[in-house]
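Example record for the data management plan.
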Amino acid sequence: MNSWVNSAEILGSDLPLELSGTGNRRALLMDALREAVRSGRLAPGTRLPPYRSLAADLGLARNTVADAYAELVAEGWLAARQGSGTRVAERAAPVTPVHRARTPERVARPVHDLVQGQPDPSVFPRTAWLASARRALATAPDDAFGPGDPHGRPELRRALAGYLARVRGVRAAPERIVLCSGAAHGLRLLAQVVGGPWAAEEYGLPFHRALLASHGVGTRPLGVDADGARVDGLTRRDRAVLLTPAHQFPTGGPLHPGRRAAVVDWARATGGLVVEDDYDGEFRYDRQPVGAVQGLDPEHVVLLGSVSKSLSPTLRIGWMVLPQRLVGPVVTAKGEREQFSSATEQLTLADFVESGAYDRQVRRMRQRHRRRRDQLVAALERRAPHIRVTGIAAGLHAVLELPPGTERSAVRAAAWQGLAVEGLADYLHPGSEDAGPADAPRDGLVVGYATPAEPAYPEALEALCRALPPG
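Corresponding structural encoding:
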């Protein structure tokens, strides 16, 4: 006989429910119930007392207990069915979280991965890449197998100069391009050469901010709104500003044309540097990709790019398109020899670009990502129409806007569903929390839709919808 556990049992010595502390009573009750489930004192399927009964026994308001039950249902700890009461969710054990600085709820071994940042590894163009590798090796000059030039292979720099001019509106000769192992490597080199302080968008990769800080370059946040970074907040003290103009990361949307012009005017007037992280500029779905800011003023803008989104993050190949005055100092900072990127992979990528295979891969990935994005939007319209999704015109991720105060519980609920997904707060620049009410941090989920394998994607979306707060 499966009867519900009455409040006397919960409060008894066999199954204590401790509401110690002076904090919010609803939060204390939720923590106590979670701990009872985690410890096994409340087994899966156990029916809980009606909230009225528990409220009376605990001396709490009925709404307090009802709200706690509802939120734990949303998180996946409890399950509620009409006529069956509220029960502990049928799950052998909760997903074990990996504790991180800002999101301790991220799952250790998720069933589904919706963390942004990488394409599905199964779609790497192996056949075309192998064909380019064979051609590149067959025609490689002898010096390709000697000590590498820190500028990078000239074949790839020429190929990139043509490609970036055609696709991104970049104005640069091959001599302005220095190859690196990715955007992070490029930032390290620029931090050494340019110094600080820098300004950075209030939402961005914490890894990039930490990387700059490790090289003595402090950053301060610039507000972000629907038109991108608020560049009117730049000052003469700022040596550089780190931006994602094509598709603000992670909130989405391109930098407004007026602000693109304004940031270039700031750089000209102050001698500052605009560092343009073109992390997914090729993946725009509503129109042709927005041209790079670098095209407005090549002497005051550095363009950073890589193949981590279009091909694979395992190919440690990126590029910096530099103002002429920075080429020498950056190459010096990089070292006397190429230490970071294989010459044979550089030659392979050069052939891959020149043969048109790279264009075909980008088109293929653009179609795939657009289809994934459309599936996400359709699932939300069907299962969670109260959730607004933004940033969907480009990129490999979208932001799901959540009601205030629900982000952390949504991330916890996702972890319970076996789903790896990140909250928008993970990307907020420290200090941005002190903004006024008009600029208060937003609640949201950053959903990467590129990673899951094709057969698993629908199930991942179902898990995501189950984790969202109710409307």
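Summary line stored alongside the record: The CA atoms of residues 81 and 435 lie 42 Å apart.
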